[in-house]
Design goal:
There is one protein chain. By secondary structure, the chain is an alpha/beta fold. It folds into three domains: 3-87, Winged helix-like DNA-binding domain superfamily/Winged helix DNA-binding domain (Arc Repressor Mutant, subunit A), CATH 1.10.10; 90-159 and 268-290, D-Maltodextrin-Binding Protein, domain 2, CATH 3.40.190; 164-265, D-Maltodextrin-Binding Protein, domain 2, CATH 3.40.190. The protein is 42% helix and 24% strand. It contains ten helices and eleven strands. It has helices at 3-15, 18-25, 29-43, 59-87, 99-102, 106-116, 129-138, 200-212, 226-234, 279-290, and strands at 48-50, 55-57, 90-97, 119-126, 143-147, 155-170, 190-193, 218-222, 240-243, 254-258, 265-273. The strands form three sheets. Strands 3, 4, 5, 6, 9, 10 and 11 form a seven-stranded mixed β-sheet that branches. The protein has a two-stranded antiparallel ribbon with strand order 1-2. Helix 8 (200-212) links the parallel strand 7 and strand 8 (218-222). Helix 1 packs across helix 4 and helix 2 (18-25) crosses helix 3 (29-43).
């Protein structure tokens, strides 16, 4: 039994006329009669009773109609689903991101992506830049939002946002009373930082700003994640420099102040594997490129 047989059967069942069914199918009437006869031979029973004046469904034919209608509808849905998959409209998208991306780019782009491609299942993992690079290389991430600079020939990157740096202080720190903090104000302050192996861009920018002010930061504690880092500040263990989007976190016990006379910027970038880019990832990259606010 072929799919063509079922489509011809439904056309005749709906029209109750071989000639009109042929017109609907854009074929000649003998072709319809031939396919129906072949289907009846294969089934071993008649689907239609025919006279010179009328065509009627037999009891077997009438029972066959709803089942065939369901089969054809399911086939049409399967074809549409496969077509959408080929276009990237269905599937899986594994996204890695550093914390600041969830406070800047992702809240803007993810709802638009979900609305446009509701059949794509998105998984989100908050990871350091280093961890994202590892997973982009091994294929367990499709796309990552991470911090520049990146020196990795297996990963393609595109800058999407440049943020100024601010200083995070305990709310009871005397410097919290100032509208802006000079880097020379924190010469003797203890620093808490994310290790360079995890976030080289943030680490190097912090160290560079300190050295421009004539000192090296005294690092009393390292933390692997941004939330842990702010927890150390809230505990009064030290100060730290972070991108301005982190102010959206509103961590209890932590205040943020601009760095006076500083033009330092941290760049957020989107990254993907050079060798293989999934179609859902390509669609997200296209959306980022077209979206207002992308660099």
């Amino acid at each position: 039994m072929e799919l063509r047989h079922l489509r011809y059967f439904m056309a005749v069942a709906e029209e109750m006329h071989f000639g009109r069914a042929a017109q609907k199918l854009y074929v000649v009437q003998p072709a319809v009669s031939k396919q129906i006869a072949a289907l009846e031979r294969e089934l071993g029973f008649e689907l239609f009773s025919r006279t010179k004046r009328r065509v009627e469904l037999t009891p077997a034919g009438a029972a066959f109609v709803p089942e065939v209608r369901d089969i054809l509808a399911r086939i049409d849905r399967a074809v549409e689903h496969a077509r959408d998959a080929a276009k990237g409209y269905v599937g899986n998208l594994a996204v890695g991101f550093i914390g600041p991306a969830m406070d800047s780019v992702l809240p803007r782009i993810l709802p638009m992506y979900r609305e446009r491609y509701p059949e794509v299942r998105i998984s989100l993992d908050e990871l350091t830049t280093a961890a994202q690079l590892t997973r982009l290389r091994d294929g367990s991430l499709d796309i990552g939002f991470l911090r520049l600079p990146i020196d990795d020939t297996q990963v393609e990157v595109r800058p999407i946002l440049a943020e100024r740096m601010v200083i995070a202080l305990h709310e009871n720190d005397p410097l919290a009373q100032k509208p802006a903090v000079e880097m020379t104000d924190v010469v003797s302050a203890p620093f808490v930082m994310i290790p360079r192996s995890e976030e080289a861009g943030l680490h190097d920018t912090t160290v560079a700003l300190c050295r421009m002010a004539g000192f090296s930061p005294t690092v009393v504690q390292e933390a692997r994640g941004l939330h842990s880092l702010l927890g150390l500040v809230a505990a009064g263990m030290g100060v730290t420099l972070v991108p301005e989007s982190v102010e959206n976190l509103a961590r209890a016990g932590v205040v943020y102040r601009p760095i006076a006379d500083s033009h330092a910027r941290l760049e957020l970038a989107v990254a993907w594997p050079v060798k293989s880019v999934s179609r859902p990832a390509e669609l997200l990259l296209e959306m980022l490129e077209d979206s207002p606010g992308s660099d």
